[in-house]
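Folding Problem: From Residues to Backbone Shape
Fields: amino acid sequence; protein backbone structure tokens
RECORD BEGINS BELOW THIS LINE
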Amino acid sequence: MINNNIYQKYNPEGWNENKKLYTLDELNLAKEKGLVLEGFVKKQENGNTYIDLGNDRIGIIPKNKLGIYLNNNHFVQFKIEDVKNNVYMLSRKSAQEESLNWAINELKKGEIINGIVKNIKPYGAFIDIGSGAVGLLHIEDISVARMKSPAERLDIGQRIPVIVKEINKEEKKIDVSYKEILGTWEENIKDIKVGEVLDGIIKEVTKDRKGIFVELKPNLVGLSEYKSGLIYGQKVKVFVKKILPDKKKIKLIIK
């Protein structure tokens, strides 16, 4: 069951693209209370990341406090650990750990949260769900349609809502899903009629090689009789032969 209310205690890094300039009082309060702040990356040098805190104040995130998946971010989140000679020593890793603990212990399966794509691998994408902490979006949870790479649908830096799929408290890992956001079968089929000719994209061939799955929408696939000479990703025109709502199936003919 999907909970459509977004509960977001920690935003993904860069969700609010306003450069924050902190006063001395704000920085002192953040250090005292252990608050998570966000700042603009001024430069990266010798493994260290320099943050513009405003009013000629600089923060430094040492390499061992950087955490994971920075990917040339413009904005990063951090906690203030110390101040030396008016230079603020910061930890992005601490902010990530705090956000991840929140996600592990307070989020529930089925809840929707905001995310930003941080890294793409052949098997899925890592999504920033708050302060740089990530959830894993497996390739099969991006869409009902087959794809060879998540990069067919997602780009680094893309903002997407995701659904909490699984939470592993022991390993501190979260799996998220995107395909439910793209609508149910019923929602995607409602404007499609028998007899229509639609645009489609060739996906996979059935194991018995008697049919071909054709993507009609990002989360809607129909089945056509097999036709030789077609390749994965090819754009085609298809005739809607039959719609079977009870089986959630669409039968097509490739023109």
Q: What stands out?
A: The helical segments are 24-33, 92-106, 185-189. The mean pLDDT is 92. The domain at 24-95 is CATH 2.40.50.140 (OB fold (Dihydrolipoamide Acetyltransferase, E2P)).
